[in-house]
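Hello forum,

I keep getting stuck at the same step: I have a sequence, I want structure tokens, and every attempt I make locally crashes halfway through. Rather than fight my setup again tonight, could one of you with a working pipeline run this one for me? It's a single chain of 313 residues.
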Amino acid sequence: MQGRAVGASVRVPLGETGAQIFPLMLGGAEFGWNIDLAASHAILDAFVELGGNAVHTADSYAGGRSEHIVGEWLRARGLRDQIVVATRVGAHPDNPGLGPVSLVRAVEASLQRLDTDRIDVLYLDATSGVTSIEDTLATADWLVETGKARSIGAFGFTAEQLVEARILASAGYPRITVLDVPYNLLRRQDFDSDLRLVASAQSMAVTPSHALAHGFLSGRHRSRSEVSRSTRGVQLAGSMNRRGTRTLRALDAIGTELGVPPAAVAVAWLLAQRIVVAPIVNAFAPVHVHEFVQGVGVRLSRAQLAEIARAVD
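Reply #2:
Ran it on my machine without issues. Output:
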């Protein structure tokens, strides 16, 4: 069996941010939405106990409740200086977009909810559009200079926008050093194109979200009759087809061979992509954390990677 041991000693550089992190980020997308404060804190505790030290959330998750839950946990556990806190701004209805005024207000609101004086990785969410990348980066520069943000990441940027941002960085604006993009075994089209080439050329640290395809790649849900008509149920049902079934079978087989659950194999596949530094993985319960964290200790062979590729393609 290939190694499964993980722990606090496992640390990798998060690109050019200066942070050293466990090669997984715990996502807070479910906090305050499908999971209450107590359950969220139990998940966060489990992650830290297994060596995790980076948490990802967003001001738009549950209308800001996710950030509040993370902030409550950081304060209660006294762990702020040990945790790399990453949050995404730009999609909250009170401060939409990445214009200078909205961006500053969004960061101030996030800092208050997170109960902290700085954000370690500030992801700029461009999904609603960016009027001026120069204005956005000028504002980000002020946020970095004042210590409110330590490094800048991107979400929803096109390859062309990242190129423009790098040109502006050569003129003194802050560099975008981390990239969050939806990416997993079943969803590769958003990244496996010009975006991947640009991210690689710019030596960005890629922290892919939706690492388990909304939980489908954990193998817990395999038929449409098992899921509800909720938003999460619709997301899961979208993967329930022949391709999804083939993929789960491959994960099952490799997981049995290695002695790990399917979620760990899905995470290991992401970590086998050289440009990926730390997948962002969400959990509904501590047991889920114990499952996907095992992926850090798995090294897939060429034969196993080929087996996965055949199932997915």
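The beta strands are 12-13, 20-21, 25-27, 54-58, 84-89, 121-125, 152-155, 176-180, 205-206, 280-281. If your local run keeps crashing, start a new thread with the error log.
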